[in-house]
Amino acid sequence: MTNQPPATPPTPAPELFTWEFATDPYPAYAWLREHAPVHRTKLPSGVEAWLVTRYVDAKQALADPRLSKNPAHHDEPAHAKGKTGIPGERKAELMTHLLNIDPPDHTRLRRLVAKAFTPRRVAEFAPRVQELTDDLIDRFAANGSADLIHEFAFPLPIYAICDLLGVPREDQDDFRDWAGMMIRHGGGPRGGVARSVKKMRGYLAELIHRKREALSDVPEPGEDLISGLIRASDEGEHLTENEAAAMAFILLFAGFETTVNLIGNGVYALLTHPEQRARLQASLGVEDSSLLETGIEELLRYDGPVELATWRFATRPLTIGGQDIGAGDPVLVVLAAADRDPERFADPDTLDLGRRDNQHLGYGHGIHYCLGAPLARLEGRSALATLLTRLPDLQLGADPAELRWRGGLIMRGLRTLPVEFTPVRGTGHVAPEGS
């Protein structure tokens, strides 16, 4: 692997962050990797930041302790104006979460919630994920058509993460409404995201209070995550109520949209690559899960749910990929560009569900590697396998050119995904109560 200086560009730099770019950003990222691998640009918010696009530089930057997650290191008050981070999180006192802090606080908080995402805990949650998956498909299977984003990919991770957190079933539709506003990324009413964040903060504060009042002296088997966070704070781990609320909030926020996009982008990629979809269906047909396992990793690499890693800020001058970066400068690692780097991946623009040595950066790298990745992978496997098995002739219900991708800087996902299939009646699955 080499890190050659960029070649003299034969064409002008491509325009970034337009609707055309959102539809297919990969040609622009290929240009940047070759000609300006660490590129300073003005974002739609007006904030200037460095984009890191090569795999070797991206991996270095994601693990570099000189790049802080704390927006206090930014040399402009952009965060206070809602131009970086999640709109409304500062006013709602939700700043002390894993995406905004560094060690040692990050180490302490991550340790407290890591128990909820161990392989064993995720495996124990698998039957509930399958139950939710079947229930959601039951709701549209007899119709012969559906919007897989709104009817399937969106509600599945919302209900799953609510169950994990311990949000009562009767309150989960409120969470679905708030989350729906949060992923519209400017497509809704002005200030809608901040209002949803505020409502969610108020609800979480009340729920934490109720759970603290009802907490037993001894942890119960399968105890929900919010109760676990409260118990940890009561046992000397110094988790404040604001920290508990912020942690629950970011697990919901970061834990559902990534999975919405994993499912949506993944299904779209399979439907537009029929030979790969046929490979996977044949494998599932003989109850061989090996191609599903590697296939999820390839879908994460090929068109993953997180386009750019969340904000980082240089705490002091440093050099990335031969480019000097000043103290206070924002740095955004472009995961989507790094994961198509031909210096790291053979035929990177080809979807190959059986790809080996697939050390993609889809869920990050280093101490900020996505905590919920095991749960997201479980939901992705369940969603794809069940859809392709129960609706074997699933196909796009619209011309790919008509589909629109959501605006926004960090995530990559479709607004809608219309599909058609032969109606399936009498599924026999029983909808879980309250879901």
Structural features, described:
The chain is an alpha+beta fold and 435 residues long. The protein contains 15 helices and ten strands. It has helices spanning 19-23, 26-35, 55-63, 105-114, 119-140, 148-153, 155-165, 172-182, 192-214, 225-237, 241-271, 274-285, 290-302, 335-338, 373-390, and strands at residues 38-42, 48-52, 67-68, 145-147, 312-314, 318-320, 323-325, 330-333, 395-396, 418-420. A five-stranded mixed beta sheet has the order 1-2-8-5-3. Strands 4-10-9 form a three-stranded antiparallel beta sheet. A two-stranded antiparallel sheet has the order 6-7. A hairpin with a 5-residue loop joins strand 1 and strand 2. Helix 7 (155-165) packs across helix 8, helix 8 (172-182) packs antiparallel against helix 9 and helix 9 crosses helix 11. The longest helix has 31 residues, at 241-271. The protein is globular, with a radius of gyration of 21 Å. The relative contact order is 0.18.
Question: How are the strands of the biggest sheet laid out side by side?
Answer: 1-2-8-5-3
The description of the largest β-sheet is: 5 strands, mixed
Shape: globular
Question: How far apart are the termini?
Answer: 49 Å
| Beta-strand residue fraction | 5-15%
Mean pLDDT: 86
Report the total helices.
Answer: 15
Structural class: alpha+beta
Low-confidence stretches: 78-82, 185-189, 428-435
Order of helices and strands: HHEEHEHHEHHHHHHHHEEEEHHEE
Q: Level of helix content?
A: 40-55%
Radius of gyration: 21 Å
Find the count of extended strands (DSSP E, 2+ residues). Answer: 10
